[in-house]
Design brief:
The protein has about 350 residues and is mainly alpha-helical. It has helices spanning about 1-10, 35-55, 70-75, 85-110, 115, 125-140, 145-165, 215, 270-290, 295-300, 320-335; strands spanning about 305-315, 345-350. Helices cover about 45% and strands about 5% of the residues. The structure holds 2-acetamido-2-deoxy-beta-D-glucopyranose (2 copies). It holds the Pfam family VWA7_N.
């Protein structure tokens, strides 16, 4: 398990080995899908805990920004800060890790799916994946399937975040999220048509101004084409770019992605990443609005009160004692039910004698 995660991390960190914001690791001060996801979750969680505290007339003094840490935030979100334990912190951390690993996996599992990355002007397809994914997250939360919900959320976040790196949204001067992407009731508008040219050649390798001025003036949405195997792309269209994209060598030469600071539109990398963070926060807010408070906290991995952990020896020779341990455990659980400091989570850890050698 650990080896395969490590291998995946190595694979995903190969320079140019992927076609998106770098999934987990990047150099040169670039922002990854992991950073974007974690920053958005921490900020949304902090805002939510601040609102809960205000409703209960309690203080929430933690400043909300990109310097939030998992440990401090878990502590600030606990109803009783003395009950903030290592276990709670690990549960929060592991919920976030599940979200960003499932986000990163989209680059492996769906490397060649245009819709998953908003490549090649696949705006309807990308938006359909997002709205279907959000429904899945909400349905899983309602059924109490929090792990499934986190994994689905990670996938949705990947596609949503890619929009800001792969389209010309920020080149058009937009600094707000494109809310239509998460709103099935709205229509996508101003998409550049299939035969509308959108790019021109870069000037001596400088791609700063390669999107056609009339496309930007008319506010037409476009994104870069990407092909691993051939240089074919529709006439006049922009390319995604990067080491593996063959289309960017063909007229119009050059590309428009903002995946890292070294990309052809790397001068807008940080802008795109900032808007992607805010778009992810908007998505989390939408999910929060559809869930009861307690379930939203479970989804993001926050335990507000103590976690009660039973560790029971289940070795066969212990059967009499197991019966007694069960009885005592149930009576502890019953005594906590409805109590003011009711644990937010119960964990059962069975252990037994290892097999002989
Ligand atoms: C690229 O062109 C833009 C203007 O089109 C200019 O502002 C920028 O300095 C150029 N970048 C480099 C590295 O020459
Ligand atoms: C993202 O949202 C924050 C908080 O609302 C705001 O201060 C910031 O300017 C936004 N970022 C961008 C790029 O608009």
């Amino acid at each position: 398990m650990q080896t395969s995660l490590l291998l995946m991390a190595l694979y995903l960190s190969l320079p140019g080995g992927t076609q998106a914001f770098k999934p987990l690791i990047s150099g040169g001060g670039s922002v990854t899908h992991r950073d974007i996801t974690q920053r958005a979750v921490l900020r949304k969680t902090a805002e939510f805990c601040r609102a809960l505290a205000a409703a209960q007339g309690q203080d929430f003094s933690l400043p909300i920004g990109d310097s939030l840490s998992i440990v401090k935030l878990q502590k600030a979100c606990s109803a009783d800060s003395s009950s903030s334990t290592l276990v709670s912190t690990i549960l929060f951390q592991s919920a976030i890790v599940k979200m960003y690993l499932s986000n990163a996996l989209v680059d492996m599992e769906f490397a060649l799916s245009k819709a998953h990355h908003f490549d090649g002007e696949t705006f309807q397809g990308g938006r359909a994946l997002i709205t279907a994914g959000v429904s899945e997250v909400k349905a899983s939360v309602k059924r109490g399937r929090f792990l499934l919900a986190r994994l689905a959320l990670g996938c949705v976040c990947h596609t949503l975040q890619d929009f800001y790196s792969h389209s010309n949204w920020v080149e058009m001067g937009n600094r707000q999220p494109y809310s239509t992407l998460i709103r099935p009731d709205l229509q996508l508008v101003n998409l550049a048509g299939p035969s509308t040219p959108t790019c021109r050649n870069c000037m001596g390798g400088n791609c700063t101004d390669n999107i056609l001025p009339e496309v930007l003036q008319q506010g037409l949405l476009t994104s870069g084409y990407f092909n691993l195997f051939s240089s074919n792309k529709p006439a006049g269209k922009c390319s995604h770019g990067g080491l593996f994209d063959w289309t960017s060598g063909r007229d119009p030469v050059g590309s428009i992605n903002k995946d890292d600071v070294g990309s052809s539109h790397g001068h807008l990398h940080h802008t795109a990443a900032d808007v992607a963070i805010n778009a992810t926060i908007e998505l989390l807010e939408d999910i929060r609005g559809a869930a009861v408070d307690k379930d939203f906290l479970r989804l993001i991995g926050i335990t507000q009160s103590a976690v009660l952990c039973f560790v029971i020896d289940t070795t066969g020779s212990m059967s009499d004692d197991i019966t007694e341990a069960k009885r005592v455990s149930f009576s502890i659980i019953d005594s906590k039910r409805g109590a003011q400091q009711e644990p937010s989570l119960y964990i059962l850890v069975p252990f037994n004698d290892p097999g002989g050698c």
